[in-house]
């Protein structure tokens, strides 16, 4: 066992608090842990074989050990959280938020705050509200804050010296803090405070404040202002009545965690209660057997959940966790006040925990237990519609992303038993290959002048338009399918029951051409065209149209959309990397320092191109100057 080779190093570990990292042969961190005494904790792994399959796999893969000593267990806990977030070690329990819903951010750190739509919560001193489900609710709420309280939506620097307000003031969506004669800093501060109360769900206080101001305005005979305050108060009351989920006067500010473990994964359900009202619920998910008990999963959930979220005074957990005192100290340091971890046994507090547990159980059933049942119907229908020899339990889907042939990339996603397998997704940079038509002709596939594809051995195929074969998308699809299944042949792996192509007949033909070159023409590939949502098969002249409400169509659409999302994300990243590059990066002998010097001296790459040998030599030397001139002489 590799970990036994580290006995000597383990014996020299200090008996102090700290964090340890297990690394594999490739130097990747596969597990991050904390300890009160590093030597005792790491030494326990030497005799841990047989404790669980997960521990056995970890012990077998460990090749190196690294550690960091800290002054306290609390510091070790914080460092462990940061390292898990950065390294994403595969043997740690990694929970993710089930959805990426937006938040509203009130920029209280600005002199004239605004409300912004954001996707992440950061510890920057601003006020965050959310997440909002559905996402459209966040935009509606942001629009409501402009309408009710008149917070600005512009990016201008506010100093009160603007000559006249903009259109937002005229349509009563901004109180115009940019014009000092219309809105003083004190008036705008009151509007900000009202917005904060509204976003935090403190509607009772807000209604009381608005009522007092309405009475003051009416008493001073400012009837138009009083009418606006009255309308705002009514709107807030309506929103308050509509969105109140459940309330009690005794529970105050706290979060309640429910957990459901199973062989398919784990679901953590969190009720966030503020001022006696459940204002939000968050679902955390990890797929695959976590290989740990309920206490370990709950502890990981608490650490990861509060890494970027506000911590309430009390956190209610379904079971007592290890290192509870250290985690309490860490949470208290983050919140700036005391935070307690409790496990209620009875009363209303226990009732909220039980409710969170029931929601976690239902979430687990919907995600893991219920999904295969619904997917079985979709897979059965798909098998019948496509006349497949067996149930398409494993589907691999390909998509190509490009803009005018620039930075062309492709993606492959995997769906097994109706569930996406992100760990098996693959990305491809298209290197550039010959047109698919040339490859097909070289293989003797017999593409005629009219674009008809004739016999390939004993295989009969349907006529296909020749125009598709000359397109870049088809050439890219040919390359990515060829590379994917050539690698599977060389290194071994599971072949799919169905290959789904994002595209029409041309892309399907390109995929089959690649499969035939590898001797894998027995695999089945179909294309799913956008807009019409028709399935194109090689051996059928007409496409297959599935019913709009068919579960099989919904399944292939979900897989296709996931492949498209994955490809587009990779393509955007490739474009950003390209934009950050300079033509000078390709010149031998020029690194970042010389590149900055050349651009500073000549203004741009075009200026470097026009520079004389003498000017270049004076700046970077004769050898590099010759390399620059030679590089641009061929372009």
List the helices and strands and how they pair.
Elements: H1 7-11, E1 18-23, E2 29-35, H2 38-43, H3 53-61, E3 64-69, H4 73-87, E4 96-97, E5 103-106, E6 115-118, E7 127-129, H5 135-149, H6 167-170, H7 185-199, H8 203-219, H9 223-243, E8 254-262, E9 265-274, E10 277-287, H10 294-305, E11 314-316, H11 324-335, E12 340-342, H12 347-386, E13 394-403, E14 406-416, E15 419-420, E16 426-429, H13 436-442, H14 472-491, E17 498-502, H15 505-517, E18 525-528, E19 535-537, H16 551-580, H17 592-602, H18 605-610, H19 613-620, H20 622-633
Parallel strand pairs: 8-11, 11-12, 13-17, 17-18
Antiparallel strand pairs: 1-2, 1-3, 4-10, 5-6, 5-7, 8-9, 9-10, 13-14, 14-15, 14-16, 18-19
Q: In CATH's first tier, which class of the domain at 387-572 applies?
A: Alpha Beta
Uncertain ranges = 242-250, 433-471
Q: What coarse outline follows from CA principal-axis ratios?
A: globular
Number of strands: 19
Radius of gyration: 31 Å
CATH superfamily of the domain at 387-572: UvrC, RNAse H endonuclease domain
Strand content: 15-25%
Rounded mean pLDDT score: 79
By DSSP (H or I, 4+ residues per run), the number of helices equals: 20
Q: What's the CATH architecture name of the domain at 387-572? A: 2-Layer Sandwich
Kindly describe this structure.
With 635 residues, this protein is α+β, with helices and mostly antiparallel strands. Among the domains are: 91 residues, GIY-YIG endonuclease (3-Layer(aba) Sandwich); 112 residues, Nucleotidyltransferase, domain 5, CATH 3.30.420; 186 residues, UvrC, RNAse H endonuclease domain (Nucleotidyltransferase, domain 5), CATH 3.30.420; 51 residues, 5' to 3' exonuclease, C-terminal subdomain (DNA polymerase, domain 1, Orthogonal Bundle), CATH 1.10.150. 44% of the residues lie in helices and 17% in strands. Helix 4 crosses helix 11, helix 14 runs parallel beside helix 15 and helix 19 crosses helix 20. It is globular, with a radius of gyration of 31 Å. The two termini are 57 Å apart.
């Amino acid at each position: 066992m590799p970990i036994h080779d580290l006995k000597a190093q383990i014996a020299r570990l200090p008996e102090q608090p700290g964090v340890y990292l297990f690394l594999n042969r490739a130097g990747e961190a596969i597990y991050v842990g904390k300890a009160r005494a590093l030597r005792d904790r790491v030494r326990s792994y030497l005799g841990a074989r047989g404790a669980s399959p997960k521990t056995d796999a970890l012990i077998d893969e460990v090749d190196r050990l690294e550690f960091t000593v800290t002054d306290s267990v609390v510091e070790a806990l914080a460092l462990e959280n940061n390292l898990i977030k950065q390294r994403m070690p595969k043997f740690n329990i990694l929970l993710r938020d089930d959805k990426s819903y937006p938040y509203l951010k009130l920029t209280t750190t600005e002199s004239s705050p605004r409300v912004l739509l954001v996707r992440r919560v950061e510890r920057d001193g601003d006020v965050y509200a959310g997440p909002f489900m559905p996402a459209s609710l966040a935009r509606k709420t942001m629009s409501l804050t402009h309408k009710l309280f008149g917070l600005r939506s512009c990016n201008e620097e506010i100093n009160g010296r603007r000559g006249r307000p903009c259109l937002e003031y005229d349509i009563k969506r901004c109180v115009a803090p940019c014009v000092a004669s219309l809105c003083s800093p004190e008036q705008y501060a009151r509007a900000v405070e009202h917005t904060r109360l509204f976003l935090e769900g403190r509607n009772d206080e807000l209604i009381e404040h608005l009522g007092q101001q309405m009475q003051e305005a009416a008493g001073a005979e400012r009837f138009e202002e009083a009418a606006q305050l009255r309308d705002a108060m009514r709107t807030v009351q309506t929103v308050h009545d509509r969105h109140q989920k459940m309330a009690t006067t005794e529970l105050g500010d706290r979060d309640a965690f429910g957990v459901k473990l199973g062989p398919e994964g784990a679901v953590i359900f969190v009720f966030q209660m503020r001022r006696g009202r459940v204002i939000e619920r968050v679902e955390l998910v990890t797929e695959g057997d976590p290989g740990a008990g309920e206490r370990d999963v709950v502890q990981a959930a608490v650490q990861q959940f509060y890494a970027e979220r506000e911590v309430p005074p009390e956190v209610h957990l379904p079971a007592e966790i290890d290192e509870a005192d250290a985690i309490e100290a860490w949470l208290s340091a983050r919140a700036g006040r005391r935070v307690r971890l409790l496990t209620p046994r009875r009363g209303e507090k226990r009732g909220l925990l039980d409710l969170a547990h029931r929601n976690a159980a239902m979430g687990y059933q919907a995600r893991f237990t219920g999904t295969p049942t619904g997917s079985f119907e979709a897979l059965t229908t798909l098998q019948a519609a496509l006349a497949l020899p067996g149930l398409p339990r494993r589907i691999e889907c390909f998509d190509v992303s490009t803009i005018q042939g620039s930075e062309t990339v492709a993606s492959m996603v995997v769906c097994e038993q109706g569930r996406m397998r992100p760990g098996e997704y693959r990305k491809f940079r298209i290197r550039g290959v010959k047109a698919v038509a040339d490859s097909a002709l070289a293989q003797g596939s017999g593409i005629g002048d009219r674009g008809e594809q004739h016999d390939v051995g004993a295989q009969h195929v349907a006529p296909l338009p020749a125009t598709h074969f000359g397109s870049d998308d088809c050439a890219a699809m040919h390359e990515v399918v060829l590379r994917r299944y050539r690698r599977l042949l060389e290194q071994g792996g599971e072949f799919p029951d169905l290959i789904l192509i994002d595209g029409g007949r041309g892309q399907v033909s390109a995929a089959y051409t690649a499969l035939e070159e590898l001797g894998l023409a027995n695999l089945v590939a179909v294309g799913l065209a956008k807009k019409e949502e028709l399935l194109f098969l090689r051996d059928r002249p007409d496409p297959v149209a599935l019913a709009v409400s068919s579960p099989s169509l919904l399944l292939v659409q979900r897989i296709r959309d996931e492949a498209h999302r994955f490809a587009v994300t990779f393509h955007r990243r490739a474009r950003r990397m390209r934009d950050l590059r300079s033509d000078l990066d390709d010149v031998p002998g020029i690194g970042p320092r010389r590149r900055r010097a050349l651009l500073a001296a000549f203004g741009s790459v075009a200026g470097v191109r026009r520079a004389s040998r003498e000017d270049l030599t004076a700046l970077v030397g004769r050898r590099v100057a010759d390399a620059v001139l030679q590089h641009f002489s061929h372009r």
